[in-house]
């Protein structure tokens, strides 16, 4: 904490910028370094979960573990970390702050320790530094600042640090919805890296007001085996799956004035063998990113049309990836640019940086889809930028981490004071 904490004037109590200034640059970055140095690929988050809990606990912020369990497919058991600041007015909005604690698996191509947290030229290096331990550090220090201040927010702030965002199903955020934790929330801020993953070129400060959604086709192609020296006597499932993969990329995908275009990308094709047989089965996995209006029925019908038009000899069964429950899907969403949350974050950006934020939309999917689509909350992504996300040499800009912490703090005050 820096200046002004000893004498809190009335104006500071309601001035978003004044409280944000109390967030200390060096303390924030030291916290980020500690987070980066904890190895935490998805499904292996015990250590970082404990760290976040202890950090909040040591500051009297009353954290609690929130059990996450998915016995059917992954067998995962773990914990989110939650904490709540109670507002003074039960009718005032409740704001959810969210970050994920996990990273992707450590990438082998690093030429240095991927957990070093080394800082050079304002860049902090490490796997997950940008995605999204920078944003996690940001909401931790913002939450601390909001709690320490004697500003009496009218609304509640709910801190949520979740597990398994990078894993296949976003199990941590899914559990928040499953257990109705989001039911009393009115808006959500997610501090995922922003501009680098936006639909178009943007620079921070930026607010991302929506995201495309995603389906994963899981398609089975069944042909007929025959001796490989007489391919005309069988039906080659591998050849038909290849033709189908190519044809699916030609789907006339949806378009949205804000989210841009949908997209189709075949991800995996597996089938056949090394014996001299015409392959009788093949499996095809195809990513489909969608915009608002493209429902499961639409997406299924599109693929069925492609299959019908191709007239393959193989039988084709179109399905979607197995999920823990039918609603565990990344749906697209758009948050209204006039929403009070967006206004509050604009105020926060102005107070912290003096700028008007760029407005954009996210190109892929994440836990924010669960808040924005499934929970129906106005959801904004505001996060620090960096490079090499999910790759070797990942880094985050330290100044942007501090800016995001301050913007979130100021935005909370603007919305809830
Ligand atoms: Zn992320």
From TrEMBL:
Pfam families: M20_dimer (PF07687), Peptidase_M20 (PF01546). InterPro entries: ArgE/DapE_CS (IPR001261), Bact_exopeptidase_dim_dom (IPR036264), Peptidase_M20 (IPR002933), Peptidase_M20_dimer (IPR011650), Peptidase_M20A (IPR050072). Its cofactor is Zn(2+). It comes from Halococcus saccharolyticus DSM 5350. GO terms for molecular function: hydrolase activity; metal ion binding. Residues 210-311 form the Peptidase M20 dimerisation domain. Keywords: Hydrolase, Metal-binding, Zinc. Belongs to the peptidase M20A family. This is Peptidase M20. SUPFAM superfamilies: Bacterial exopeptidase dimerisation domain, Zn-dependent exopeptidases. The keyword Ribosomal protein does not apply.
């Amino acid at each position: 904490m820096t200046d002004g904490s000893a004498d809190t004037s009335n104006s500071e109590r309601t001035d978003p910028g004044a409280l944000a200034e109390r967030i200390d640059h060096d303390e924030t970055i030291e916290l980020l370094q500690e987070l980066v140095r904890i190895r935490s690929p998805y499904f292996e988050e015990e250590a970082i979960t404990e760290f976040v809990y202890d950090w909040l606990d040591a500051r009297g912020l009353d954290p609690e573990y929130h059990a996450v369990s998915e016995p059917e497919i992954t067998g995962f058991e773990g914990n989110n970390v939650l904490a709540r600041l109670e507002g003074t007015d039960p009718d005032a909005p409740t704001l959810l702050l969210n970050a994920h604690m996990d990273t992707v698996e450590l990438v082998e191509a690093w030429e240095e320790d991927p957990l070093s947290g080394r800082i050079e030229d304002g860049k902090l290096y490490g796997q997950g530094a940008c995605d999204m331990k920078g944003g996690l550090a940001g909401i931790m220090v913002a939450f601390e600042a909001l709690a320490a201040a004697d500003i009496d927010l009218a609304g509640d702030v709910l801190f949520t640090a979740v597990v398994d965002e990078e894993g296949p199903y976003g199990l941590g955020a899914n559990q928040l919805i499953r257990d109705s934790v989001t039911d009393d929330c009115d808006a959500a801020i997610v501090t995922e890296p922003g501009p680098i993953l936006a639909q178009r070129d943007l620079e921070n400060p930026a607010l991302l007001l929506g995201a495309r959604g995603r389906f994963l086709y899981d398609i089975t192609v069944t042909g007929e085996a025959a001796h490989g020296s007489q391919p005309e006597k069988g039906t080659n499932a591998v050849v038909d799956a290849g033709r189908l993969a190519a044809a699916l990329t030609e789907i006339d995908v949806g378009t949205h004035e804000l989210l841009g275009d949908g997209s189709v990308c075949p991800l995996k094709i597996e089938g056949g063998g090394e014996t001299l047989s015409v392959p009788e089965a093949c499996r095809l996995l195809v990513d489909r990113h969608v915009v608002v209006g493209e429902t499961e029925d639409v997406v299924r019908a599109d693929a069925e049309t492609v299959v019908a038009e191709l007239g393959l000899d193989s039988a084709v069964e179109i399905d979607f990836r197995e999920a823990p429950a039918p609603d565990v899907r990344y749906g697209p969403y758009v948050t209204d640019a006039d929403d009070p949350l967006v206004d509050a974050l604009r105020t926060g950006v102005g107070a912290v940086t003096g700028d008007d934020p760029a407005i954009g939309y996210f190109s892929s999917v994440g836990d924010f889809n669960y808040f924005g689509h499934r929970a129906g909350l106005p959801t904004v992504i505001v996060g620090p930028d960096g490079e090499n996300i999910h790759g070797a040499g990942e880094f985050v800009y330290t100044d942007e981490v501090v800016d995001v912490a301050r913007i979130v703090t100021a935005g909370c005050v603007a919305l809830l004071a």
